[in-house]
Amino acid sequence: MRSPDAEWSRGLEVSNLTVRYGETLALDAVDLRVPGGWIVAVVGPSGCGKSSLLRAVAGIERPTSGSVVLAGRALDALPTHRRGVGLMFQDHALFPHLTVGQNVRFGLRYAGVGDRLQENRVRELLALVGLEDTVDRAIDELSGGEAQRVALARSLAPSPRLLMLDEPLGSLDRTLREHLVSVLGRVIRQQGMTAVHVTHDQAEAFALADEVVVLREGRVQQVGTPEDLWRRPASAFVADFLGHPNLWTRGEQTLLVPVDGLRPAVGGAPGAAGGRVRTGRVERSIFREGRYRIEATSTDEHPGESLVFDSAVALVIGAAVDLVVDEAQLRTMPADRPKDATQTS
Amino acid sequence: MDRHRPSLTGIRSAAPPTLALAFLGALVVWPIVAILVRSLGGVGSPRLAEILGRDAVWSVAGFTVFQAALSTVMTLALGFPVALGLARYELPGRRLIRSLVVVPFVLPTVVVAASFRAVFGAFGVFEQSLFAILAAHVFFNLAVVVRVLGGAWSRIDARQADAARVLGASSWQTFRRVTFPVLRGPLAASATIVFLFCFTSYGVILMLGGPTRATLETEIQRYAVFRQEFDVAAVLALLQMCVVALLAIAAGRWQRRAPAAGLSSARTLRRRRLPIDSGPSRVLGVMVLVIVGVVIVLPMVALVERSLRVGDGHGFDHFVRLAERSDVLPVSPLRALLHSLAFASVAAAIAVACAVVTARSIARGGRLGRLVGLVSLVPLGVSAVTLGFGYLVGFARFDLRRSLWLIPAAHAVIGLPFVLATIMPAITSIPERLRQAAAGLGASPREVTRRIERPIVRRAVLSGAGFAVAVSVGEFGATSFLARGASGFTAPLAVFRLLSRPGDTLRGQALALSVIIGLIVGSLALVLDRVGEAE
């Protein structure tokens, strides 16, 4: 574990970073701060520039302008191998001609770890990811999850100043992914590592990160803790990307009602409570985690909008429902969703 | 990504492929240009028209096409069951049969010709005949059909056939409507390759055809070397190159029209091979054994047996006498073999260097590399004899032809397509991610080369070198133009020279030398095949 000092706690400071490929602007004057010991997730749909950000920080890509400072040291003039930035990829990128132990050991000589200590460090890290028995195993004998854990151990071994994870769990199935997210979080925090986690999966970002950065078309849309983002998305784009289904456009504005801000009206006059009421027709009824998630389409004066809510009982498909909107949870934001955006749910 | 790298490394990385291009320019492009100039230089002139008007030219061209077409049909007919049996059935001794089929492809033409002389000589018939030519061509090219067609066959996605069966197709209908359409591409591809090889076949025709069965290849050599009529040889070479170019274009079309749709590369989708348990499968099994036994094993056994025959008994006399000089050859057969091995090591070094440089450039998306890769494929189509003749014409002025270096350089060029095909996949398949991961761990570009790229590519480079050696040790066509004097005299030339003179002793020596060349090249091929299969 690294001892926290003033330099270290400054973490990663990216300012005004711009990356251009010919005519396309992949990153447009992006600022990003990751304090020492924090995990920051960078999320966004494919093509939003998150990979360019990662490549520019790692020194694989040459930015058009801007600066990258890590622990108080400017990285801009340094090639990748002198930056002290560890990388972990979706396809794990383990070296196929080396054993598990040799993979983990690979970077230690460049980190100035002596021969005798290398052995210990390899064992320590493999133990940390729960793979102490695989030192001599060949890479192609590993399962997907094991390979990913070895990749984590390998990138942590030389104690980089910054660890960058590029969709680290993208290729694994869901159960394994959930398990590995917790392994990742535990190990990274235990090592006191500063980390940037790039992903298109907001659930993965929320599960791991202290702070989440939403990128869109090369620009930062919003920065905040997972709860901040979920409760107070800055734009319809962010709300949509995070998976809020109930987004209703009214002119220049978008109304957002969280799933639990929409309740079926039970008995009596629904308007009695004084709240806004929506009427719709049930399209789907999906049982999950003890409740039914009902997907309905509005049939009132704003027809065709998505009305998603939870119900204790199943509803008949095609049935009409009246829904009360919890005004306290209703939020208004600029309607900047791109026209072609499809709802993520 | 390379295009974003600073320009300095751009310049540095452009130097090696430029060098490779210059080398290929001199040894592939220039001789072809020289032939074109020589033959077309007189377009409209009465000379070209006069040569093209000769009946002899067209009857030679006709026989060339005829024997190639017949050889192709026979190879496909015999190769189809072997490919099916090896690809789909659990034949007893499958690995051995596979290896036996693969070996002839790399055997030198003179060794194959010697084997068939031995077989037919043993039976006392057909020693020099059309039948002998066809048999030798089948022997050579069975490997092509088995590899291309059988390879595709074993990679057909089993779920397609299963789906057809579920939809109600009988097994014959499934084959006709599902499996065969997928195989049509590989079938056309193997037919084209086999035709091309038979069309440009030289040593086999020369040694098994006898004086009356001439093809474009043998006539180019005869007009160029014996009659010194370069104009005629150039026109023949032009004809030959035209046919090859047409074939290449046609093959390209087929390949584009029938992409590998339906073929899966995933190992998991490979079907399990079927057991030999039904009547038809037993018939197939027997067919495979008979074909491989008669076409491939018999000639090899006959070669060994004849090389050991001394008078009425057997012994190693012919092998022992390989060290002796006779007045038929400028050097002893053993000495010629040593020359061959020396040329082969130089050729392998050149070919491997060229291939590595080219593959690295292509892997980085370099246009120069792709150009080099394209030019390096030319010797696959343009025959060794044409190249050799091109050197004769193109380098006559520079006196380069006398240089001993020209022999290994030509061998390197002829082997390069095979070497490149071996090394290229290994180099281009190293994911960029691996390099980035290594750099992220602190490895400098030099270290990445040393600790990542080199170890991963090492096996492929060794196989490539093996291919280059195999090609060089057996090379006959180009060498027969280039070898001047004793120091350039190679083992294949010695076999040819010894076999073309009457006399049991000379013949015995030729067969013994063939056995040794065959052992060297054949064991190389077996090792390479194992390496290839393991990867």
Can you offer a commentary on this structure?
The complex is a heterodimer of chains A (345) and B (535). Helix content of chain A is 24%, strand content 31%. Chain A contains 9 helices and 18 strands. In chain A, the strands form 4 sheets. A 6-stranded mixed β-sheet of chain A has the order 6-7-8-3-9-10, with helices on both faces. A 5-stranded antiparallel β-sheet of chain A has the order 13-17-14-15-16, with no helix packed on it. In chain A, helix 4 (115-128) packs across helix 5. The longest helix of chain A has 17 residues, at 174-190. Chain A starts with 5 loop residues before the first helix and ends in an 11-residue tail after the last strand. The model of chain A is unreliable at 339-345 (pLDDT under 50). Chain B is an all-alpha fold and 535 residues long. Chain B has a single domain (14-305, 314-534), classed as MetI-like (MetI-like fold). Chain B is 77% helix and 1% strand. Chain B has helices spanning 7-40, 46-52, 55-88, 94-106, 109-123, 130-155, 158-166, 171-199, 203-209, 216-226, 230-257, 279-308, 317-320, 333-363, 367-381, 384-394, 406-428, 432-440, 445-474, 479-482, 491-499, 504-534, and strands at 309-310, 313-314. In chain B, strands 1-2 form a two-stranded antiparallel ribbon. Chain B starts with 6 loop residues before the first helix and ends with a helix. The chains are: A alpha+beta (345), B mainly alpha (535). At the A-B interface, strand 6 of A face helix 18 and helix 19 of B.
